[in-house]
Design goal:
Shape of chain A: globular
Shape of chain B: flat
Order of helices and strands of chain A: EHEEEEHHEHHHE
Structural class of chain B: mainly alpha
Radius of gyration of chain A: 14 Å
Number of strands of chain B: 0
Oligomer: heterodimer
Distance between the termini of chain B: 85 Å
CATH topology of chain A: Nonspecific Lipid-transfer Protein, Chain A
Number of helices of chain B: 11
Largest sheet of chain A: 5 strands, mixed
Strand content of chain B: under 5%
Strand content of chain A: 15-25%
CATH superfamily of chain A: SCP2 sterol-binding domain
Helix content of chain B: 40-55%
Number of domains of chain B: 1
Largest interface: A-B, 30 and 38 residues
CATH class of chain A: Alpha Beta
Radius of gyration of chain B: 27 Å
CATH architecture of chain B: Orthogonal Bundle
Strand order of the largest sheet of chain A: 4-3-2-5-6
Largest sheet of chain B: none
Number of helices of chain A: 6
CATH topology of chain B: Ribonucleotide Reductase, subunit A
Helix content of chain A: 25-40%
Structural class of chain A: alpha/beta
Distance between the termini of chain A: 26 Å
Amino acid sequence: MPVFPSVEWFDAVSRSFNSDEANRTAGGGIADAGVGIIFEDQVFLLNFAGYECEKASVIQRSDLENTDFYLEMHPDDWIEMLINIQQNGTADMNYTLNTLDLDSEDGLAKSATDDQYRLDKFFRFNQTIQFFFDASSDVETEFDREITPA
Amino acid sequence: MAESEEKQPTKTTPPPRRRRNLKIDHDVEVPEPGYAWMPRTLEWGVRVKPGAKGMTMQGLNVGIYGEIPDRWDEQTRMPRGAYPMAGIPPIGFALREKREVWADNAADLYEEAIQRRWIPASDIPWNTLEPLPDDVEAAMCQLCTELSQAANVEFETIGYWLQHMSYGYHEVKLFLASNMFDAGRHHEAFRKRALANGGGLGIESKGEINRMILESKGGWSETSLLLHLLRGLFIQTIYRYGERFAHNPAEKVMFARALQDKARHTAYGLQHLRYAVTHKQDKALVFQQLLNIGERVFARELQEPVVLEPLAVIFGGGIEGAKAGMREVHHMMGDFVRSYLASTDWIGVHRGRAFPKGLSRYLEA
């Protein structure tokens, strides 16, 4: 069972996301974006190209400059979001990425280079990134800690 | 009816199988073909292959078909790369300079718009709408009336300008056609929401900004500055908060999908406006002057209660919570102003001290 977060886990989610053609309709579709993921001191890069998440990899924090934007939350908030997705099949009304972005003190989506144009890809491809994390409901996931819901 | 009188199925003979023989149709007199059109091409033998995203418009920009001139002097509808014909009466395009319309991302954004399209009639789960308290429903209907009308202004404005853009820059025309269609979809979606849950349409604001955008005739770049940047980013911010404070999955999906479209329009606006600023010396100054006026008109219009008050009621969960909701409105406006100023910086127009107090006050939120 893959542990969140890990390349193995992102690869498993990518397989589910890439194979579901429903993710290409109703507001989904092609998306070109390099998305950074920060979970404590672990940093990952998700490469979205065309209809798919092509690759997940571990990167250094300094590499975030090469991403279009990155997503950063408190580890408990990441886990809470993923548990919500597993319970509902998709994020419910309180756990969508846009909602978490607005509810977070510092925001969820950030630019390492203060580049507004690249940061706006979070909104342009919002449903694709949402569909990606929603696809994690198909992946049996192990977390490295237990959390107390906020 | 007696059994004997019952209608019996009649046997019909099928018509004979026949195909017209094109080669022996001697009765028709036709002129001898000249095929003069056939060799008239500037580049032949082009074989564009589909890539990972299929056969894209950007992919077609090969050879002479990918040469995008800084000025397009052809005054007819001749497509870029086609064989020019003499004697075609001019159409009189006003926008013939690349810098007046161009954005490097236009072709890709067009593909994005086509591939990421959605259908309000069936993609929004309308059956999840449930009755809301009267004050909240009234606020949502008022907001939707404004958003629907803003979208209406958007497609009418672009429709005016499209006919003035020359054919040398078809990528831009295609993208803006999709922008119009998106705006039509937003007009549709918000009107449907207003009329789907026991409420009805509210009132449209006096519309000073609407008129500014509709009557902006100085140039497409100037119009895009008001449409995509100033008002567009405001609407985009409302969509974000609309998604956050949705009462049901129908509203959630409606705002989330509309948000993506709006961000795409912003992406064109940003790229085009930066291109315009970097390719014409005094453009940044022109934009500064225009924003000096536009931002003040915009700030004044915000005093009208038809947008921010309904948002306060929605955010606060009703009239009773509207005061707390207004604090959230200030927070929303702070988000808008920050993204707006980051965007003006991105295009090379630094607002600095010229930025009006009526908007900068939200930075404290």
